[in-house]
Design brief:
Layout (H helix, E strand, L loop, with lengths): L2 H9 L3 H7 L5 H14 L5 H7 L5 H14 L2
Helix pairs in contact: 1-3, 2-3, 3-5, 4-5
Length: 73
């Protein structure tokens, strides 16, 4: 998956596709996906993002936390 695919999903507000992409193996994509979900602001993303708070990668956890904060605003 490329960053441009994530951007396209964000532009189309494909929340379900982005939620599935949170499981992608590359951390940089997971972070980008979390940011996209936070920008869209759909509350369906909160639970999957909470799961990402348990990720072993610090950047993924941080991106997920920031996204949750953006959704709850």
């Amino acid at each position: 998956m490329e960053k441009s695919a994530v951007e396209k999903m964000q532009a189309n507000k494909d929340v379900e596709g982005l939620i599935r992409a949170l499981k992608y193996e590359k951390e940089s994509i997971q972070c980008h996906v979390a940011g996209a979900l936070g920008n869209i602001g759909d509350k369906r993303a909160i639970e999957p993002l909470i799961e990402s708070l348990k990720d072993e990668n610090e950047h993924v956890r941080s991106s997920a936390a920031e996204a949750i904060g953006n959704i709850r605003k």
